[in-house]
Amino acid sequence: MTTFRLPFPFLLSIILIGTSHVYAAAPQFDQVGFSKFPGAGLRETTGGQGGRVFNVTSSKELEAAVKGSDSKTIYIQGNIALSRALGVGPNTSLLGVGSGATITRSGISIKNVTNVIVRNLKISKILGDDGIEIRNSTRVWIDHNEFESDCCGGGPDKYDGQVDIVRASDWITVSWNYFHDHWKASLVGNSDALRSVDTGHLHVTYHHNYWRHEGTRGPAGRFGTQHVYNNLYVDYLHQVIHSRSDNQVLVEGNVFRGNCTEALSTYGLVIPMDSPNTSVNGDEEIDGYANLGAVNDWGTCKTNITRVGTFTKAPYPYTLTPLAEVEQLVKAGAGIGKLQF
Ligand SMILES: *[C@@H]1O[C@H](CO)[C@@H](O)[C@H](O)[C@H]1NC(C)=O
Ligand SMILES: *[C@@H]1O[C@H](CO)[C@@H](O)[C@H](O)[C@H]1NC(C)=O
Ligand SMILES: *[C@@H]1O[C@H](CO)[C@@H](O)[C@H](O)[C@H]1NC(C)=O
Ligand SMILES: *[C@@H]1O[C@H](CO)[C@@H](O)[C@H](O)[C@H]1NC(C)=O
Ligand SMILES: *[C@@H]1O[C@H](CO)[C@@H](O)[C@H](O)[C@H]1NC(C)=O
Ligand SMILES: *[C@@H]1O[C@H](CO)[C@@H](O)[C@H](O)[C@H]1NC(C)=O
Ligand SMILES: *[C@@H]1O[C@H](CO)[C@@H](O)[C@H](O)[C@H]1NC(C)=O
């Protein structure tokens, strides 16, 4: 489906780097992580596989196609300006065709459903709504999309999140996306008052995403469990990975470049630059937890790890990209137009 040249130095590094990890020979665009290996008794995320196929070119056709729980794969062509959030039914794949499938005005809403895949779509400048909101939903794979607005003259609340994952959603992978020019990137758990709703859920894998010129939340989690590996962060303005309210993160093999203040914090404070709700000086929350796996390249960023957690090992097979290859590989492989639909 997709071909890639092997970066030359890789051949050397496979010989020289001796760790317990298995290293990749080329980008792996197959599904990995929590969406592929959900909790006991659940099947991997397959979206609309085996079902009806739709080709859509308008919001009207798209809105009609996403309804119902029958399995369906929907190929989206061209720009679709949604007049309201697109409520996606279960067992659905939304696949952008070529490198020009774009969603504007309103976002994609994955609510109260299971088994949804979104790939190869550009989602831009969604006002008054998230780019993608995943709420009370399980088994979701968000892969090879581009999320873009304008950053950051309008402040943190001009737009909402790019990919927000809330209300006990679970078993999600966010991979190979290009997140750029936006303030609040990806929130996992949207209130410190939702402990009883969210605890035990919000298992999310973030891998090989390219985040450039963003404000905060790459991601920010509460009460859940996130595995954040092999992401590339360039010119992040305020705070990148935030783990708070007893959230657990395993952070490994990520690369930080350009301007950067804080790459990872488990200090509970919701900083003033991240739209705190109750105080202009930031909201006080209980700290989160973090573990560091394979070495990260923090660039010029600082870290503030106040509590080391129990999430030390991802419960599924995955292949780490060698740290020295991450920047090149993620830039080449993330975003739209890399898959052939
Ligand atoms: C969708 O479009 C593709 C390529 O243009 C075509 O091969 C296929 O037959 C179409 N499918 C439907 C259900 O219209
Ligand atoms: C579609 O989703 C529902 C859950 O909403 C599930 O019960 C059903 O088995 C799914 N159908 C297929 C064909 O996967
Ligand atoms: C999701 O389920 C809740 C509780 O049953 C309901 O209030 C809400 O309207 C549902 N949302 C959608 C989009 O179906
Ligand atoms: C969550 O979604 C399920 C359907 O999958 C629904 O039965 C339930 O009421 C929803 N719960 C909430 C709190 O929205
Ligand atoms: C980095 O920050 C400095 C000072 O705010 C700014 O002048 C410069 O343009 C920034 N560089 C990039 C690449 O954003
Ligand atoms: C790091 O966390 C501690 C709380 O444990 C806090 O007092 C300190 O201000 C934090 N440092 C930064 C730079 O935010
Ligand atoms: C802000 O805080 C108030 C009071 O704690 C709460 O009712 C409200 O839902 C919060 N809003 C958001 C967006 O979190």
UniProtKB/TrEMBL annotation:
Q: Which GO terms describe its molecular function?
A: pectate lyase activity
Gene3D superfamilies according to UniProt: Single-stranded right-handed beta-helix, Pectin lyase-like
What keywords tag this UniProt record? Carbohydrate metabolism, Lyase, Polysaccharide degradation, Secreted, Signal
Q: One Pfam family name from the record?
A: Pectate_lyase_4
Which cell locations does it reside in? Secreted
Q: Which GO terms describe its biological process?
A: polysaccharide catabolic process
Q: Hey, which family's this protein in? A: Belongs to the polysaccharide lyase 1 family.
The name of this protein is Pectin lyase-like protein
